Amino acid sequence: MDMMTHLTGWEFAALACAALLVGFSKTAVSGANTVSLAIFAAVLPARASTGVLLPVLIAGDVLAVLTYRRHAHWPTLWRLFPAVGAGVVVGTLFLLWADDGAVRISIGVILLAMSGVTVWRRRTAETGEPAEDTGSRAGRLKARSYGVLGGFTTMVANAGGPVMSMYLLSAGFRKLGFLGTSAFFFLIVNVSKLPFSVGLGLVDGDSLLLDAALVLFVVPGALLGKWAVHRIDQKLFERLVIAATVLGGLQLLLR
């Protein structure tokens, strides 16, 4: 089916707004693109929406890397990548048999659980409990756990952003380090997902034609995010990330 010709004007406008939000989330409030995920899934068939959204996300990742490349923390990235790769493979196998309902419920529960854990950890930190050393055995185990969950959720629904946001917040990343590390992380992960998505039939010539039109809206969103991020203080930034994660989890469970 030619998606471009079957979309109404209002449907395309909704996808364009979602693409603009992708750009904003990549350069300002990571995790907010769960709202974009909801819009794409509402306008397009569930599996098709995953394939269309992936190149839009990659475009946002490229802009985020260009903006925050000096702030990435590579030791954290190297700790995460092996576990994320395992999660992507598990997610690919899951997509071979799971229906839309199973995918939504699984990811919604994971996102809400990660939000709860992060809020709890931040409250205990405020009461004076020492921060966890990310290089310790417990820290490495946490990185692997979040990495597998992030790989799984990003493969099955492009919803890995909130999971990794929760990990980076729990690890104590400040705003720019958070954005720089997540920018490189998702550019590498999303590009590596392309062969899997093509093999599953999620990305094809039809979806790429729609992407070519939607990517134009990612750029102004990224510029808006770059302008806004320096006007958002650290506490508000963290609250917005957690709120976006909770919203994403709820919309997946209730849709």
From TrEMBL:
Highest taxon in the source lineage: Bacteria
Pfam family, one: TauE
Predominant cellular place of this UniProt entry's protein: membrane
Keyword Transmembrane helix: yes
Record localization: Cell membrane
Topology class, membrane: Multi-pass membrane protein
InterPro entries tied to this protein: TM_pro_TauE-like, TSUP
Magnesium among keywords: no
UniProt keyword list: Cell membrane, Membrane, Transmembrane, Transmembrane helix, Transport
Transmembrane annotation, as ranges: 47-68, 80-97, 103-120, 176-196, 208-229
Annotated family: Belongs to the 4-toluene sulfonate uptake permease (TSUP) (TC 2.A.102) family.
Protein name per the record: Probable membrane transporter protein
